[in-house]
Amino acid sequence: MTLSLVLERLRPALRPEDRVAAISDEQICLVLPRIAHPTQAVLAAVKCLRALDRPIAHEGGTAVLRPCVGIATVPEHPADPAQLLMAVDVARRIAGSREEGYHVYQSEDNVEAEVYHGLDIDLERAIRANELTVHYQPQIELSSGRPVAAEALLRWRHPTAGPIPPSTMVGIAERTGLIASLTFWVLNTVLRNAAQLRKEGIIPNLSVNLSTRALVDAELPDLVDQALRTWSVPPGQITLEITESSMIGDAERSMAMLTRLKGTGVGLSIDDFGTGYSSLAYLKRFPLDELKIDRLFVAGLLTDRGDHQIVRSVIDLSHNFELRAVAEGVEEPATLEELKRMGCDLAQGFLMARPMGEREFRAWWLDKGGTHA
Ligand code: C2E
Ligand code: MG
Ligand code: MG
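# magnesium ion complex -> structure
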């Protein structure tokens, strides 16, 4: 496959001022000088991935590419060109194991890249040995200021590598076929905790994240149903979070899956809303309950006009479709005030509480007067 064919495809996705350099036979470096915000780089990456989606005519036949995009932005990431290139390369390697095909470099990724290899087998062992834990991050109702819900977030402290980011865990699980086991483990752990907390009169709505790959598993709705029955938790207490990108692929299949999941009685939420490309038609057709505004937009709420407009629009959109709007990543009191003023329903973020182990969560909830039986 010659790079020129690939470049031909990419060109319409690029702006005239963007620079393209071939790094090797298989690698292209794009320099986008007019990126105002990391989310714009993600949008550009998605555009490029889409441009390469269709097979390319090659040597009398066709070739299908499996492109992946690593992203690093200045000033968020190292400005030194060599370091920046290294960051992009680390991000690219991680992107290769991600369903969405892109990854924005994070400061912890260097460590991640180093330890990544040995982790495959370890995750399998960790699931079997119950070495993973679930932490809970509260969500407060903005109208009353009271905690009403929490998001379950996966945690793994590896004996030698230390804490492994959940996104890495999910990446490994998807790559090695462990995702169904991991999803099952998380669901059961959350429901077991929910059942215990219910006995004590603590009844938060609990959100569980589902990876894109988990959504492809036809057995998932039965698994959810079975877990709910095992722990006798009313389905209305559980919300499943899916990312926007998981709805884009095969809309009919996603629709069928979401309808079956909804049939178990759980709520459905779209996570990181605003970063993908969901069409308004999906919002109308899919049986949803909630939109979670991506934390990048929440972070820029008070300083970036564009971010403010996006948050405003997502809140309005939610309400027009009779959905709950949840802001994640709330770190500043002023941001919380503004969200309240804008009519956002729920808020989650370090300002209120960091994700906590089950015990700490229970104490926090009681202390803050969270919803009770
Ligand atoms: P997410 O679902 O969007 O989760 C929210 C992330 O934002 C969490 O990161 C949380 O710790 C972080 N966060 C919360 N409040 C703040 C804040 O005020 N400021 C900042 N900067 N960050 C905040 P975490 O726990 O590292 O999880 C990252 C991602 O990993 C999650 O993003 C989710 O996509 C995935 N994930 C976590 N647990 C699971 C799981 O059980 N299954 C699956 N499939 N994915 C999971
Ligand atoms: Mg989430
Ligand atoms: Mg999110």
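# post-check
The two ends are 63 Å apart (CA to CA).
Residues 221 and 260 are 6 Å apart (CA to CA).
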